[in-house]
Amino acid sequence: MSENQTVKLTKRDKETVFWRYTVITNSLFNYASMEAPSLVYALSPALRKIYKDDDDYKASLKNQYKYFNTTPIMAESLVGASLAMEEKDGIKALEPVQSLKTSLMGPFAGIGDSVFNVMMNTIIGSITGSLALSGNLIAPPLIGFVWAMIMLFAVKRPLFWGGYNSGVAIVEKFGDQLSRLTNAASVLGVTVVGSLVPTVIKIQTGLVMKTGKVSTNVQTDMLDKIMPSLLPVLATYIIYKLLDSKKWTPTKCIFLVIVFALVCSYFGILTVPK
Fold first, then answer.
1. 141/137 Cα distance (integer angstroms)
2. SS (H, E, C) 204-250
3. Where are its TM segments located (predicted)?
């Protein structure tokens, strides 16, 4: 790969990224990388301007295509920050960009889902639903349109440009110390992802070992005392190792988990966690 020369994007280039992501959000979706295809679609024209070398361009696209999943509204800021960091630092920004996305997409999803997908949508839905039940046919679509415009110009655009300005500030402020920021963001990202294993993945064995009159529950008397959530950790590790192989796709892994769970449940090896 060649050292990237600094390329200054025009406002139109940045606007193009914003509109491409806003329009296509979640339309390009798969279970392997979630929202990454939408991200690549949005950034690709700007990245082509930043990277004149084909190998650098491909490396950037491959980096952006890694797993990415957060509330689309909050994602606008991460799209802007990613663009700014690559525009400023070129190929050297790939690792910091990925670390930034990994560490923030979880917390941003929590904020976005709570504020926009639950609270605000419930409020707007209640208002429009009440008006529709009262026989008002004009107000509900009008309120929906006004709300969409508010979200577009008062929320999404400020988040995108705020993220872009923050991305520039990160590079300018930390400069040569960017590797330290990357390490810190990586630790935060690993912590966030690691915390999902015991909280989201629930696996429990129903095996009981009997020695004479003494019965030992494998789950509560052995595994939980050695390492709580040991089975979820092992399951996660096995799935990750399978996904690392080209022979295994996410779809195959899903079917493997279903079949394995059914068979083990039938023979009492696995039980439903309480």
1. 8
2. EECCEEEECCEEEEHHHHHHHHHCCCHHHHHHHHHHHHHHCCCCCCH
3. 137-155, 181-201, 255-272
Ramachandran area for residue 229 (φ above 0: left; ψ -120 to 50: alpha; else beta): left
Alpha-carbon distances, residue 75 vs 12, 72, 79, 97 (angstroms): 20, 5, 6, 13
Give the span between the Cα atoms of 30 and 26, in whole angstroms: 9
The number of CA neighbours under 13 Å toward the Cβ of 274 is 3
Q: Which amino acid is at 272?
A: V
pTM, two decimals, is 0.66
The predicted-structure confidence for 108-150, as pLDDT tens digits, reads as follows 887 888 788 777 877 887 788 778 877 888 888 888 888 888 8
Is 203 strand, coil or helix?
Answer: coil
- Per-residue pLDDT tens digits for 213-267: 778 888 888 888 888 888 988 998 998 889 888 888 888 888 999 999 999 988 8
Spatial contact of 79 and 165, defined as CB atoms under 8 Å apart: no
Per the CB < 8 A criterion, the answer to whether 42 and 17 are in contact is yes
Whether the CB-CB separation of 252 and 260 falls below 8 Å is answered with: no
Rounded to whole angstroms, how far apart are CA atoms 262 and 104?
A: 36
Give the Cα separation of 261 and 119 in Å (integer). Answer: 36
Nearest to 268 by CA among 190, 216, 204, 214: 204
Residues 218 and 264 sit within 8 Å (Cβ to Cβ): no
* Number of neighbouring beta carbons within 10 Å of residue 186: 17
